[in-house]
Amino acid sequence: MPEMTTSSHVPRTDDADSDRLKGLLERAATGRDGQAWSDLWTELYHNGSLDVAHPLVLHTLAGMAEADEADAAASALHLAGALLVQADQRYETRNLRHQYTPEVARLLRAAHRWRQVTADRNDYCHLVEAVLNLEGDIHWAETLVWGVVSEEYELECPDPDGCASLWVIFGERGFFSAAEDYALSDDIETFPLHPADPRALEGLGRRLYDLALDDGHEEVARALTYAFGEATCPECRQRFSVVGQVVTSSI
User: Fold this and answer.
1) C-beta contacts of 134-137 below 8 A and 24+ residues apart
2) Using one digit for the tens of pLDDT, what is the confidence trace for 218-237?
């Protein structure tokens, strides 16, 4: 075995991290390596062991989003949007967005392109979430879209004393609000929801509703009228804005 000399190359931690990141991104780009995506989420988003500001990250994710592999593109857009929102909140600046403005613009164009051609309801919802996250105007897109996909929100009564936890249900199981344990009993009291009139929607609600209709997702558009409508607290009978409590729960 040759003796190691002072001129032998010993990779720095930075080199090892870059190699790890490059390898994971290359594996993820195939669209068939779920473990690579899981590791990227863990190491970039959950524990930060890899640097989200590394030049490879958003550049490579943008390239995946622009390619023709739908699964890899959707995964890249989802991760990129989440990383940007997390960076905005963690550092209370938009430095990452500003540093990689061209990459963010590429990602956003790709998200809109895939949004317009995606037929699956839930895939479409997650692409809308990616659009909102990439735009960066709100930080609660994940919570909003999660409810539309799952057809329910778990919320707190807006009463200052927080009188009840409750569920807002809209979809195959009906359209109502109920106490937290509604699923455990057949005779629990429920209260009908009050969807927003599409003609009265404004701002984000109007925009998302129109997008869903234009993209051929009438079911999503209908769900959004409930997300931007009102529900009733089962305890104090107070009517409240569903999206208002979605925002509150995301703070």
Assistant:
1) 134/77, 134/80, 134/81, 134/84, 134/104, 134/107, 134/108, 135/108, 136/84, 136/85, 136/88, 136/94, 136/97
2) 999 999 999 999 999 999 99
